[in-house]
Amino acid sequence: MTGRHDFWHAFLSLGLILASFQLYAAPKAELWPFWQASNESNHATIDHQPWQTILDRYLLVQGQHHLFDYQNVSASDKHALKQYIRALASLDPRDYRQAEQYAYWVNLYNALTVDEILDHYPIRSITKLGGIFTFGPWDEDQVIVAGKTLTLNDIEHRILRPIWQDPRTHYAVNCASLGCPNLQLNAFTSANQEQLLDQAAKAFIRSPKGVLIQGNRAQLSTIYQWFSDDFGGEKALFEHISQYAPEYRGFTGKIRYDYDWSLNQP
């Protein structure tokens, strides 16, 4: 009797986890109007050097992956990361130009993700975080900015995606997983973000975890399935891809999707 109870409990838990995954898998871009304001006459810049220092020390290039050396982050650098996040949270990004805001939100998202992993390390996957029946920490409260409590999903799906409507945002935010577009070696700034976005898009599309085509079969990152509308819909997907890999233009073969949730560590 106990064995049967344990089986059904495990079955129910798996079902709830899979349901949570489906909810995560395709969040809609739903604008939070509060964050639309900007001050285009303010040419001040936000200092992201503390984040750059962390990236310089712990982000490693290994084949198609940029791996974060969570295991060896010093106590002082963990503290410095939290100080950087607090510094960003103390600002109101609406006081800055939109270009400055974009870099602010991308860096904040990525710094919060690394901080979340460090707070729970060692773990095998970010999907192990969050509540017992949730798939990852994306709906957990992370930071308060301008009096508003924000989750990672708020930053990505209620601010970045709907305000900028740039599919390259999917190559900029990093979910600490091997299947994700790489955490960039450089912190985003208003000056370098166009270059970084194109660089990140090209690197991902030209890596096997992004696009792998053999004959008339393609294996694509599940990002292209989850957020199909951001890339122009399924029929226009290869138009986006071919901007960075012209040889894939006009592909009409069979497509399967794959994603590796393993932690992006050495």
UniProtKB/TrEMBL annotation:
Domain of life: Bacteria
Residue ranges annotated for the DUF547 domain, each copy included: 95-205
UniProt xrefs under InterPro entries: DUF547
Protein name: DUF547 domain-containing protein
Source organism (scientific name): Vibrio agarilyticus
Lineage of origin: Bacteria, Pseudomonadati, Pseudomonadota, Gammaproteobacteria, Vibrionales
